[in-house]
Amino acid sequence: MQRIIKNNQIVDETWHLLPKETSIDELTNCDDYIVPLQMWRDHAHLLKARDGGLGVWLDSDQEAEEIGEDVQHFQVIALNFPAFTDGRNYSNARLLRDRYGFKGELRAIGDVLRDQLFFMARCGFDAFAIRADKDPEDALQSLKDFSVTYQGATDEPLPLFRRR
Q: Are 121 and 101 in contact (CB under 8 A)?
């Protein structure tokens, strides 16, 4: 079982992250699923009628605007980082939190490494599925790398000079 960082703690993963090729017929009614965006587009009415938890995941080439009006239907939104160098989902995280008011779990998935976590948290992420070959205990410590931030962001909207 994978362990993730959620709300500054390491916890066991309870959600099923579905690959893009999954068929809607493979889902049970009670499990908690994070479905690919295309499955949400094609079967939103069926997914909303299920009893289990519902989340959606976006790849880095998909935009937050595509689910902006639907965020109230999701307990989890996962944003995929296919490579360490691909930062497009930082912007999606800010949009989901700041423009669309998403209050649920915002999870980073994919090539997620220790060096990114502090900055991801500043953009609104509160859960991280660390790459399987990395230590989540070590990654958790990275959230404490900096004690003061100068700029405003999703986690602290006021810049330092306005907080004094």
A: no
Task: State both tokens at 85.
Answer: 């160098």
Look at residues 147, 142, 138, 148 and name the one whose alpha carbon lies nearest to residue 125: 142
On whether residue 65 sits in a domain, the answer given is yes
Query: 108-155 pLDDT, tens per residue?
Result: 999 999 999 999 999 999 999 999 999 999 999 999 889 888 899 999
DSSP character for 10?
A: E
Q: Contact, 159 vs 152, CB < 8 A?
A: yes
Token couple for 31: 């499990």
CATH of the domain at 14: 3.20.20.70
Domain carrying residue 109: 3-20+31-143
The model's pTM:
0.93
